[in-house]
Amino acid sequence: MAEPLDALLLDIAACRRCEAHLPHGPRPVLRAAPNSRILLAGQAPGRKVHESGIPWQDASGERLRDWLGVEAAQFYDASCFAIVPMGFCYPGAGRSGDLPPRPECRALWHPRLLPLLRDVRLVLAIGEYAQAYHLPQRKKTLTETVAAWREYWPAVVPLPHPSPRNQLWLRRNLWFESELLPALRVLVREALAR
């Protein structure tokens, strides 16, 4: 008999709830294990991830792993990282990047999935959609929320999206790399070591 999480992940993999709204068709991309220690909550898979079926297997993922101070093998170990975006399928491209994640996943699957991740010690809320879900008391803007990271520490760490498109944001917010990232790497090491 399948474990509850294994059965739920199979149900999610077969999900076609918002198929009519997905220009490239459904392909839910996520990873989780009952003993995952860090919940990585992003936005939704991009085009490259949709094609490969491997979360964060793109330039954004490379930068994210660098931010966290982890190698790919550890990053893709579901006992270390549960990768549960707000939307599990690629929503398609808009005028200035990918479209927002479809809301169906968050409403249908997150309330059932997240309680099964019983060993999560740290939530990394990447981007405004994940922050809206995991930080109901967030600030008015993403920048203000990330700048107030100490208020949510150590349970949740708000992060900007690591996309190469965010170069300007990183140049304007030098405190992110000098203050938040060193502290984040320590927190990640501690969460994974316990």
- How many helical stretches? 11
Share in helix: 40-55%
**Oligomerization status of the protein chains:** single chain
- The secondary-structure element order is HEHHHEEEHHEHHHEHH
Query: How much of the residues is beta strand, in percent?
Result: 5-15%
Biggest pleated-sheet summary: 4 strands, parallel
DSSP strand tally: 6
What structural class do helix, strand and pairing data support? alpha/beta
Mean pLDDT: 95
Strand order of the largest sheet: 2-1-5-6
Task: Record the SSE blueprint.
Blueprint: H1 4-13, E1 38-41, H2 47-52, H3 59-68, H4 72-75, E2 81-83, E3 93-94, E4 97-98, H5 103-108, H6 110-113, E5 122-126, H7 128-134, H8 142-147, H9 149-152, E6 156-159, H10 167-172, H11 175-193
Parallel strand pairs: 1-2, 1-5, 5-6
Antiparallel strand pairs: 3-4
Describe the protein's architecture and organization:
With 194 residues, this protein is an alpha/beta fold. 42% of the residues lie in helices and 10% in strands. The protein has eleven helices and six strands. The protein has a four-stranded parallel sheet with strand order 2-1-5-6. Strand 3 and strand 4 form a beta hairpin. The longest helix has 19 residues. The protein is globular, with a radius of gyration of 16 Å.
